[in-house]
Amino acid sequence: QAKQLCPPHAAQRRQVGPAAVSKTRRAAGMEGGDRQPLVSTPNPEGWGSISAVVNAPLIDVPPDASWFSVFLMWLTLPINLVQGVISGFVGCAFVGISIGYCNCCGCWRLVSAAGSVLLGRPFLLAWTWWRYVFAGLTALVANGRSRLALFIWEWEAFGASDWWWHGEGVWCWTYAQVDAILRSNQHRESAFGCVRACIPDLFATHILIFLSNDGLPNSQWKAVRDALHAVFLNQHASAYKTRVAKLAEKLEADWPSRKLDDLNDTTRLQ
User: Fold this and answer.
1) Strand partners, 186
2) What CA–CA distance (Å, rounded) separates 240 from 235?
3) Which long-range contacts (CB under 8 A, 24 or more apart) does 25-34 make?
4) Which helix (H) or strand (E) holds 238?
5) For 152, phi and psi rounded to 5 degrees?
6) 215 close to 185: Cβ distance less than 8 angstroms
7) Has residue 32 got a pLDDT over 70?
8) Does this model's pTM top 0.85?
9) Residue 105's pLDDT band (boundaries 50, 70, 90)?
């Protein structure tokens, strides 16, 4: 599969696929039921170091997520935990810590997670996030550790209306709203579902989902997307046709005598 996706020299350098795994197992003495660990080999020259990536300084860390903020959170853990647990079970309390309890004088900006976001998540409002995180964790566990059930619970807590607050932004659920957003230009950040991504240790910087599709002629999102479609997703290209033609053969070799019940086999699907 790697040879179909990469140039021959790249596939040889990466050493991926069943053949490479078999060679590694033999080199590590794992054939014949032996349980010794695989031998780790260094990256080829010029490929960089994964250790350097995961140990690089984090990017886009807000002031309320500093190490000093973490220290203060643990010092005030009982207070944060009580507020968070209550808000994770009581919908109106969750709404209050998310967007504030009233909009009469603008003070909601100083006592809610949403207000903290609009003010740039300053250090002095870190406490609004401490209790909000505990509330979200409590609500997730209370809803069977299902993210979908959590989102529905949050939506109902906000009155089952068109919008609700989650993470650092507003969520919507109707098809018309979602379709309109997807068809429009979007200003994006390094985040998933209004929750900041940990970069660069967990996610690479400037991946396609993080780039804004602002419609400008020099858009990096447009350049990357055009290259992706031209190289990998061009249905008229010979390389694409060759890969698609071999899918059935590869599937038959890896998964013979397929049955619908096989979809319940978690180990095989993984």
Assistant:
1) 213
2) 6
3) none
4) helix 238-245
5) -65, -40
6) yes
7) no
8) no
9) confident
Most confident of 11-20, 82-91, 186-195, 233-242: 82-91
Q: CA-to-CA distance for 65 and 48, rounded, in angstroms?
A: 29
CB 11 within 8 A of CB 26: no
* Residues near 30 by beta carbon (within 8 Å), at least 6 away in sequence: 36, 38
Tokens of 65: 């997520």
Rg (Cα) of the chain, in Å, rounded?
24
Question: How deeply is 125 buried, as exposed, middle or buried, from its count of CB atoms within 10 A (0-12, 13-18, 19+)?
Answer: buried
Which has more pLDDT, 67 or 52? 67
Residue in 2, 21, 19 with CA at minimum distance from that of residue 10? 2
C-beta of residue 18 within 8 angstroms of C-beta of residue 254? no
pLDDT tens, position by position, 194-250: 999 989 888 888 899 999 998 888 899 999 999 988 888 888 888 889 999 999 998
SS3 labels along 26-47:
HHHCCHHHCCCCCCCCCCCCCC
Three-state secondary-structure class, residue 15: coil
Cα torsion 137, 106, 117, 119 to 10°: value is: -150
CA 143, 269, 140 angle in degrees (round to 5)?
10
- What is the number of residues in the chain? 270
